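re the bet — no i am not wrong, look at it urself. input seq straight from the record:
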Amino acid sequence: MIESLCFSKFSKRVALWAGLVIIGATACTSPSSDSDSDRAGKSRTETPVSDKITELTDKILDKPNNPNLYISRALAYTEQGMYNLAIKDVDRAMVIDSTVSYFHATRGEIFFLSGDLRSARLSFEKAVGYDEENTEALLKLGEINFLLRRYPEALRTIDQALRVNERIPKGYFLKGYIFKEIGDTTKSLSSFQTATEVNPEYYEAFMELGHIYAFRGDPIALDYINTALELRPASTEAWYHKGMYYQSKGMIGDAAEAYENLVKRDPKGYLGYYNLGYLYLTESDQYETALAYFDTVLTIQPEAIDAVYNRGVCYEELGDEETAEAVYREVLSQDPQHTLAARGLSRLLE
């Protein structure tokens, strides 16, 4: 369920606000960031992957004892999502030479992409064992340990990488994420700030700083979010959180403008429409307009049950109690535990 926020003007009829939803997905599960070498900007080879695999296979037949050819084909298989074949090729390379740190790191990356974090961790540990200054392996090991909630181990390997090279922004970013997870906000802010000092174009670090300061209610949050938008003007995440910041401060016109910018940049996403609907419902009493926004939400995200509920609130405010009752019943048929819909129905049946 989308987080709720109760505004005083709705003493009985409480609308639900898309208040704490983060779009984009970082997260979703990993704090990894390629800000300093933006994934979207990476060049791609002109040779199709399937042709590359065929070409490498021919080379391997000609030179079967060249481990680098197996690694190259493993990377081509990985690009196709063919992780089992990729692992087999890395293993073939390591039969020829098992002492190369990069080979173990490549194996770890493939396991990581396939979702096998524990096997990935073991491979990166071997990579570090063969080269204690392999910073990429150290950072990846730190990230995996973070995901496995092995926080002291994660910080230890990241610090090891930073001792090798203190100018790695991703190391500070990962530390910021770990400190944030364990509740040390002061160290988290310091780490994210250092990441931006090392790399002034580190979008993700600016967004994290914006998130934390916004949660504190500190106006400096807007500076960080605006910096993130300067780096990525089309960022739907940044526009969403800019709207969220203004909305939390009661700056409704600014919030609406931010959500409108979000809709322009992400017309197939639903959160901009949802929060615009919420503003029209709770702040300007434009219930018909709010209904239109919630209808748009449901065309994009039919399972957005709170948008259905808010339609019921709109109809109730418009005095169409029959339709409001039907909507509340629809919500309860999908989610019998939806407390606000139950309250709404109870109100109408009094």
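see?? The domain at 48-165 is CATH 1.25.40.10 (Serine Threonine Protein Phosphatase 5, Tetratricopeptide repeat). told u. also The radius of gyration is 25 Å. so pay up
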